[in-house]
Amino acid sequence: QVQVVESGGGSVQAGGSLRLSCAASGRTFYAVGWFRQAPGKEREFVAGFRWNDGYTFYTDSVKGRFTIFRDSAKNTFHLQMSSLKPEDTATYYCAADPVAGWGPGVYWGQGTLVTVSS
């Protein structure tokens, strides 16, 4: 049974840091990553990690501030968020993709709220 379970999140002041974690299990994945959805907006891609070679990719607005990385001992990966801005406020979703493309077969976590105050 595939499970995608995330943890972390919370409230922080602008300029602060938070770490999100996600445990993805039950099958192999092509890539894992994070998406976010702010109130009244569509869900957007934030960061991704290609499982077989560790290649990482980010949306432009978080480059240099967010880092996605894998826990080598477990099927767990993390999103370290630094220099947070109020516009980073959103519900963050962990995603695990069996094939490339973030299509309809993606497995999703339950979502965790990140609130950044100015």
Keywords:
single chain; 118 residues; mainly beta; 7-stranded mixed sheet; 4-stranded antiparallel sheet; 0% helix; 53% strand; globular
List the helices and strands and how they pair.
Elements: E1 3-8, E2 10-13, E3 18-25, E4 31-37, E5 44-50, E6 56-58, E7 66-71, E8 76-81, E9 90-97, E10 107-108, E11 112-117
Parallel strand pairs: 2-11
Antiparallel strand pairs: 1-3, 3-8, 4-5, 4-9, 5-6, 7-8, 9-10, 9-11
Write up this protein.
There is one protein chain. The chain has about 120 residues and is an all-beta fold. Helices cover about 0% and strands about 55% of the residues. It has strands at about 5-10, 10-15, 20-25, 30-35, 45-50, 55-60, 65-70, 75-80, 90-95, 105-110, 110-115. Strands 2, 4, 5, 6, 9, 10 and 11 form a seven-stranded mixed sheet that branches. It has a four-stranded antiparallel sheet with strand order 1-3-8-7, with no helix packed on it. The chain is globular, with a radius of gyration of 13 Å.
> Total strand count, please?
11
Task: Name the structural class.
Answer: mainly beta
Instruction: Please count the helical segments.
Output: 0
Percent range for β-strand residues: over 45%
Low-pLDDT residue intervals, each spanning 5 or more residues: none
Tell me the span between the first and last alpha carbons: 41 Å
Question: What percentage of residues falls in helices of 4 or more residues?
Answer: under 10%
What is the succession of H and E elements?
EEEEEEEEEEE
Shape annotation = globular
Query: How big is the Rg?
Result: 13 Å
- For the report, how would you describe the main beta sheet? 7 strands, mixed
- The pLDDT mean sits at 95
